[in-house]
Structures are given as C-alpha cells and as structure tokens.
Design a protein that fits this description.
12 helices; four-stranded antiparallel beta sheet; 13 strands; alpha+beta; globular; binds alpha-D-galactopyranose; single chain
Length: 386
C-alpha cells in the first residue's frame, strides 16, 4: 500500500492535474493520561502518533475550495464566503469548517484545491478528525501565506469542530495534532494552554490497542458527561462561588460538599478531580525514571473511567485486562472519549513485540472484531512536507 503522502499527491494530480502540489500533514494522537479533563480546564498528556492526515494543496486565484477525499472517493466544492455552520459530520465539513473559522477570525483565506488522505483509523478514538482539521489549517495557511502559530491554529481548529461541525469537544485533540513534539508527550494545561514536553525514554514503548469497536453512541454520551460536570460545578458554586471549573476542586472539597450533589454528578466529578492530578504525577514519574509508577497511574485511570465516569465498555475492559496481565506491561488504560475505540499500554521496550502479538491473539480469540495493535513513537505536530 502506498503512503498517505503518495495517495494525497496522486489523488490531487488525478483530480486537478497541473504541477505537483505541496503537502501538509498532522498526526493523530493517543492520550497517555488525563481523560475527560480537558473540558474541565484540567491537565492532559497526549502525544502525536505516526499516523497522519495529509493534505496535498495548491492555492487558487479565487475564493473557492475544491476538495477530493482519497478515503471517500468524491470531490466537493464550496465558496469560502458562502460557508455557514450547519452541523454536518461528513469529511468535507471538517475541511470547510476550518476555512470558515479562518475567515471568521478575520484572516484573508485564499481559495485552494485540496486532496486529503490519511492513515489515522476513522472513529477509533485516535482523533482522525482533529488531524484532518489541523492538516487543512496548515495547508490553507501556507496557501494563503498566513503565519503558522500552532496554539492559535489548535484553538481555531477546535472552533471549527465546536461551532461548524457541532461537536462539543475540548481542546486536547487539536492541540496534540498542532503542537506535538517528536519523541515527547505533551503535558498540556487546558486552562493556560501552557505545555511541557515530556521525553519518553527508549526503555518504554507506547502500544496502541484498537478494539475494533465503533459506536455512534459516543457523541450523546460525551455530551451527557459534560452536562454532569456542569451540574456538579453549579452545585459546588453554591458553597464556593469563585470556583471556575472542576479543575479548581480538590478531592477533599468535593467530599466535603458531597451532599449538595446529585449522586451521578458526584461520581463523575469524583473521576475528574483525581484524574486531573494524574498527568502531572505521570510526567514527574517519567522524568524520575519511575516507569512502574507511571504505569500504575494508567491502571488507576482506567478503573476510574470504568467505574466512576462509566465511559468504558466490555471490549475495552477486556483489552486492558489482558494487557495488564502480560509480562513487561507497566500500565494500560482506555484512551480518548471511550465507548469503544482504543486503549493504550506502556510496555517495556524489550517485551513490546511479544506483548503486541500475544494481546492481539488473546483479544481476537474472544472477540470477532478487526482489532489492531501497534507500537508507536511520539510524532511531531502539523508541518509542511516540502
Ligand atoms: C475526545 C474529545 C477530547 C477529550 C477526550 C476525552 O477525544 O475530542 O476533547 O475530551 O474525548 O478526554
């Protein structure tokens, strides 16, 4: 199979002809720890993966976007000045949404011809949509001679997804796609948007474990969880009006005010306030060379997502359970929004190959699903591939 770069370039030539296009790409991401904390102003620790959305592009002299998708095999055309948020969830909406958000920000966006391709599995919780948005932003900025600022473009891509596509996600995925650092995970404070790059030692491998489960339900369940967090905050503010987000709530404060909260809202908040401490502890453990401690935090995170936040599922739990039982596994947890998609494990590098093979076999013996496991090094954020 040809690479996504080759596919994008070939699609472009087939659809639009002319001289060779330029290429922009952005990675998918896997979140190591800090789940469902980003929209609570908290901490997350994602890393870019070596799977990318790629956009082949060439500027046009008008204000039209023509885009062709290698995965969906169709060409779509839109006028940048006519774009209106409409809540569509097709691939073109992610492309058009970014052009809309650039226009709304007051930037002068030129029209462009675009061909998109990629190898981030769609709907697997590895943020294929954020990768696409950010790769499109990188391409349109280059085509329009606009300066590239990774943080601004992460926020702009998130706006495209929130307001144009109509998905109420936090900032983690777009941030990872835009600003990841090769060889590092990114400790991101979702309130200040400050980051620290955390070098991942060669002794540990990050293994992505795709359960093969794809569930449409995730969107409404995600919005439900956000609502519970808002409810918890509204109740807690009666006691402490200055609190801004669950990020500001300590486990002790939550416990003290427990009677004010509806039991479900309490349970959700109980996940968030402790999970929010884990990315910082994980980063400290990795820096201190204590990979066993980092792994334990991942195991605790999974239990909390399963029992308190209730966003896991039988397949994710099984994958994590067999992973945790393998020799060399330091820790494992579900990753991303949940309800299917992927889990992630931290594995001693020397054992990673054996781990990947045996966990996949054990999983497939139980579930007849297109599961896939792969080890990946942390990849860089969005860039031009000239
Ligand atoms: C999805 C969202 C992110 C984040 C995670 C859960 O990936 O897009 O913003 O909320 O779920 O941590």
């Amino acid at each position: 199979m040809s690479s996504p770069r080759e596919q994008a370039a070939r699609r472009f030539q087939d659809a639009f002809g002319g001289p060779a296009p330029r290429l922009a790409e952005a990675p998918g991401r896997v979140n190591l720890i800090g789940e469902h904390t980003d929209y609570n102003d908290g901490f997350v620790l994602p890393m870019g993966i070596e799977r990318h959305a790629v956009v082949a592009f060439r500027a046009r002299d008008d204000r039209r976007l023509r885009a062709v998708s290698s995965a969906f095999g169709e060409t779509r055309e839109v006028e940048i000045d006519a774009l209106q948020p409409g809540g569509g969830h097709q691939w073109i909406d992610y492309v058009a949404g970014v052009a809309w958000a650039l226009r709304e920000s007051g930037r002068l966006v030129r029209g462009a011809d675009l061909a998109v391709a990629g190898d981030v599995p769609i709907g697997a919780g590895l943020s294929s949509s954020a990768a696409l948005e950010v790769a499109v932003a990188r391409a349109l900025c280059a085509a329009s001679s606009l300066p590239w600022d990774a943080v601004e473009m992460a926020l702009l891509s998130q706006r495209a997804e929130n307001a144009y596509v109509g998905m109420a996600c936090g900032v983690m995925d777009q941030f990872a796609a835009a600003a990841s650092v090769e060889g590092h995970a990114l400790l991101l404070d979702c309130r200040s948007l400050e980051t620290q790059a955390v070098a991942l030692p060669a002794a540990a491998a990050v293994v992505v474990m795709d359960t093969g489960v794809r569930r449409a339900l995730a969107r409404s369940a995600y919005n439900d969880r956000r609502r519970s967090c808002d409810e918890a905050m509204a109740a807690l503010r009666e006691a402490a009006p200055n609190l801004r987000a669950l990020r500001d709530v300590t486990p002790a404060l939550l416990e003290a005010e427990r009677s004010r909260l509806d039991p479900v809202a309490f349970q959700r908040a109980a996940h968030v306030v402790v999970e929010n401490l884990r990315p910082v502890s994980f980063a400290a453990a990795v820096r201190a060379g204590d990979l066993a401690a980092a792994g334990r935090l991942m195991n605790e995170s999974h239990a909390s997502l399963r029992d308190l936040y209730e966003v896991s599922c039988a397949e994710l739990d099984f994958m994590v359970e067999i992973a945790q039982a393998r020799p060399g596994c330091l820790g494992a947890r579900m990753t991303g929004a949940g309800f299917g998609g992927c889990a992630v494990a931290l594995v001693e590098s020397a054992q990673a190959e054996e781990f990947t093979r045996t966990v996949e076999l054990a999983y497939r013996a139980r579930y007849d699903l297109p599961a896939a496991l792969f080890a990946c090094r942390p990849a860089a954020g969005a860039r031009l591939v000239d």
